[in-house]
Amino acid sequence: MSSVLRTGSLRARTARGVLRPAARVLGTPVRVRTDAPRIALTFDDGPVRAVTPGILDVLRDFDARATFFVLMTRARPDPGLVRELGAAGHEVGLHGADHRSLRTFTPGEVRDRTRRARDELEQITGASVTWFRPPYGEQSPARWAAVRSLGLEPVLWSATTWDWKDVPQARRVEKAIDGCSAGAILLAHDNFADEVDGVSDGPRPEVDKTDLLTRVLSGLADRGTSATTVSELLGTGRFERRISFAG
């Protein structure tokens, strides 16, 4: 082996040796290390009457559970729907006061807005809120720390349904199932954030989300894998964290 390759390998091992302990301190959960044949199913951007009840029906049919990261712009007008999530055995986390990126705000503003949103959501659900998913998955170290200072744990993902992309439904199903090894956290959406949520992300994709969920859960069941909440999955192992900051 050449000295250049040996040096490169040494640097890579050194970098991994530095990053692994740092990730335990500064990292955001992306999956759970577990041998259990289970994944955490998560939904962002809702809830909305046009989609979420259909999602709940599919989850019931498969005896599956999920964590719903809700926006207060959607939860506030329909608190009854938010309560239906908990009544059906699902978990409610916070996605934000609206869907604007945390980078839009100073760390102090992130803390104040997130605290108010959490308190309002807890009043609706009557339960403590533990998990937070930053809009777009975007966070900086200071904004991550602001959220953590509130006792909230930011959670990202390791697999996705691609339900915001203009691709064939079969490709979405394939993408989701291929990414769902044991302990994965799967990203899905029961809404598409828009001007109501403070953002404009282009045209709403045409996605039959109940069909997509049915096909994904069916494919997972064929592999002997079930879907549950972030909290229940964490009960089978421990978080795998990744340092994920931008801006």
TrEMBL record:
Native source organism of the sequence: Kocuria oceani
Cross-referenced InterPro entries: Glyco_hydro/deAcase_b/a-brl, NODB_dom, Polysacc_deacetylase_ArnD
Residues annotated as domain NodB homology: 37-223
Gene3D superfamilies: Glycoside hydrolase/deacetylase (3.20.20.370)
The protein's name in its UniProt record: Polysaccharide deacetylase family protein
Pfam families named in the record: Polysacc_deac_1
